[in-house]
Amino acid sequence: MSQSDDLPNARTTWRPRTNLVHGGTVRSSFGETSEAMFLTSGYTYETMEAAERRFRNEEPGFVYSRFSNPTVRMFEERIALLEGAEDARATASGMAAVTAALFCQLQAGDHVLAAKAMFGSCRYIIEELLPRFGVSSTLIDGRDLDAWKKAVQPNTKVFFLETPSNPTLEIIDLRAVAGIAHDAGARLVVDNVFATPILQRPFEFGADVVVYSATKHIDGQGRCLGGVVLSDAAFINDYLSNFLRQTGPSLSPFNAWVLLKSLETVDLRVREHARNGQIVADLLDAHPKIARTLYPGLKSHPQHELAMKQMSMGGNIVAFDVAGGKDEAFRFANALKIIRISNNLGDAKSLLTHPATTTHQRLTPEVRAELGIGDGTLRLSVGLEDPQDLVNDIETALAPL
Ligand SMILES: Cc1ncc(COP(=O)(O)O)c(C=O)c1O
After folding, report:
1. Is residue 364 scored above 50 in pLDDT?
2. Mean pLDDT of the chain
3. Model confidence pLDDT, tens digit, residues 97-112
4. Candidate of 166, 172, 344 to mutate for ligand 1, largest count of ligand atoms within 8 Å of Cβ
5. What separation in Å is there between the alpha carbon of 287 and the centre of ligand 1?
6. Of all residues in the chain, what percent carry a pLDDT higher than 70?
7. CATH 3.10.20.90 fits 267-398, yes or no
8. Would you tell me which of 226, 240, 251, 303 could form a disulfide with 171, CB atoms 3.0–4.6 Å apart?
9. Span 16-263: which CATH code?
10. What DSSP designation does 42 have?
11. In the 8-state DSSP scheme, what is residue 337?
12. Ligand 1 neighbourhood includes 95 CB (under 6 angstroms)
């Protein structure tokens, strides 16, 4: 096994759930059942000649854990199998994955076109950081296909989007936008965090690069940060690998091991999350003290049909407005007993955040209003608790309002 090896299991006929348990596994000479954690920064060589060959890529093997590590490689191979991608590279966090996926392929003079409804840090990179290095960007309403077409420039190299978006769950037509990107000679990069690799497969709709914060559903238990970039072998070899190797946002072997073991259960967890998500969304949608509920699995979602073409279930994130505004939203949140206040998501524990004062507080009130993030808007990541307990918790906290 080495950083330059082909994926050993890529040509198996195993189905996805089998790959999630066995894919990418390489056993040491001890024949361990559970994948080994290789907590090593470096590797030794039998001879100087062997080291020379390894550095020249003339023989397989690891050279340094900033470049690759056996446990990290198992995680990369397993998630590439899940996603149906030729290869993957893991990173220290989701933001490291987004940053690397963009910077590795862009240079001064290029242009990036992105959907404006996205996670605050992604927006910072595209709107503020890239322009500092001579890469211009345009943010548009990603739901409007004409807006994508009209904003294309001769130097547009990358389209970037998130669907469903954080936090207002806007849906973007992946197949249509991929077509516009390819007509323009650009690559489509999709941040698939909210949908998860279980419920939405962007490569099947034409995406060129898919990124994840593995911190979310892939870990699923709120333990460690991680990220991953998936694409074809050409993109990884020509752009990404060297960028990561030289700049060093490497995933620690310990975190890679946690994430690798989490992949064994991600399919089961995400489907259960989505079943609970639907129950909670139905409750909120019908509740008189909730002014608006946004959830892709609800018929009332303005893009429900498109969502259900792209996603096999509605997911576990629900955005909603408590009638009244910020004071009522805070009173409701503070009264909850099971659902915890936290800006993280994709955890077994149900987590609630107020985007206007946390994840999206950097945006001006005007931009937040444009994105549909009001003072009473809350984002709930529905966990794996018994759904009846979640329903009771929400109803009890809403009752005094
Ligand atoms: C849609 C989206 N993309 C990227 C990230 C960044 O991931 P991380 O926190 O692992 O850096 C997050 C969450 O933080 C997110 O919600």
Report:
1. yes
2. 95
3. 999 999 999 999 999 9
4. 166
5. 30
6. 97
7. no
8. 303
9. 3.40.640.10
10. B
11. S
12. yes
